[in-house]
Amino acid sequence: MGVTQVPEISVGSCDRTMPVIGMGTSTNPPPDPETAKAAMLEAMRAGYRHFDTAFAYGSEKPLGEAMAEALRLGLVKSRDEFFITTKLWSSFAEKDMIVPAMKMSLSNLQLEYVDMYLIHWPVRLSKEVTNMPVKKREYILPLDIKSVWEAMEEGKNLGLTKGIGVSNFSCKKLEELLSTAKIPPAVNQVEMSPIWQQKQLREYCTQKGIHIGAYSPLGAYNTKWGHNRVVECDVLGEIAKARGKTPAQVSLRWLYEQGVSIVTKSFNKQRMRENLDIFGWSLTEEDSERIAQLPQKKGLLFADVIGPYDISLEIDAEI
Ligand SMILES: NC(=O)c1ccc[n+]([C@@H]2O[C@H](COP(=O)([O-])OP(=O)(O)OC[C@H]3O[C@@H](n4cnc5c(N)ncnc54)[C@H](OP(=O)(O)O)[C@@H]3O)[C@@H](O)[C@H]2O)c1
């Protein structure tokens, strides 16, 4: 089986280009490290160079092992061929903890720098939080965006990451961040798919030069936090049939045509390759119009993950 060449794009203030599709690494529960490492190596063989991990996923170490192995095997010539995104966990979202958290992720990944470091969630969690949902309201604290972002900028200036950005940030939170940021966020990674198209947020981010990274592009099909409304969508199914593709490919192609980057997870050899086969063909204008009209529903709600507290409900309600 061949190796797909994935197109790369510039993303705002990031010092290097990003492959438009990346391999997600979030599973619940986390897989055993050998399974995860083997899946990531298989993804590298298929052509994935962009990997999306996070301290919270427990996937940094197996990804680090897989990268080291890929270098040993000659699957890649140098570390620069990879684009690695990882994320600041909310328990470390405090000014003095951020550079140490970056260094801890680098140590897990066996790297000297990552390519993108994101604030994972727009909240801070106290150290009492060990799992979800959070047991007490007082364990969830507002994020001090100004001081947290200063420390993110420090990490970039120290060379620990090529780019800094955010995840799950609304227009309102981005506005607050931009009012004091010296380095604007390169990326806002958010849920996006044909059934949660993020029109307002995308318009705002385009105006401000912030790139959108789409997560759960297949609606996190068959996961604990996911649903079947993308992969089993009738309209996507009809378009897929007409194009000789699968509904998953139609969703991924549609995202690519919107100019966003994508992170999608598959640890299955066939499906991870299927998900790369989104180049060299396109949707028709009529396909895009049909997709634009799909009913919209958010998949991942903070209130479901953290617990239905005022602060999580507020985040869910912000656009
Ligand atoms: N920043 C954040 O807060 C945040 C939140 C959620 C996710 N993410 C990131 O985004 C990544 C992707 O999102 P996600 O994992 O939630 O969801 P996703 O990529 O939409 O869906 C993944 C699920 O779909 C299945 N799948 C993959 N390809 C398929 C295909 N072609 N046909 C049918 N099923 C397919 C996978 O199973 P198999 O493995 O069995 O193929 C897996 O169960 C995550 O892994 C994570 O890295 C970030």
UniProtKB/TrEMBL annotation:
InterPro entries: AKR (IPR020471), AKR4A/B (IPR044497), Aldo/ket_reductase_CS (IPR018170), NAD(P)_OxRdtase_dom_sf (IPR036812), NADP_OxRdtase_dom (IPR023210). Keywords: Oxidoreductase. One of its GO terms (biological process) is secondary metabolite biosynthetic process. Residues 21-293 form the NADP-dependent oxidoreductase domain. Substrate binds at residue 120. The keyword Oxidoreductase applies. Signal peptide: none annotated. Pfam families: Aldo_ket_red (PF00248). One of its GO terms (molecular function) is oxidoreductase activity, acting on the CH-OH group of donors, NAD or NADP as acceptor. The keyword Oxidoreductase applies. The active site is at 57 (proton donor). Pathway: Secondary metabolite biosynthesis; terpenoid biosynthesis. This is D-galacturonate reductase-like. It comes from Rhodamnia argentea. The lineage of its organism: Eukaryota, Viridiplantae, Streptophyta, Embryophyta, Tracheophyta. The gene is LOC115727814.
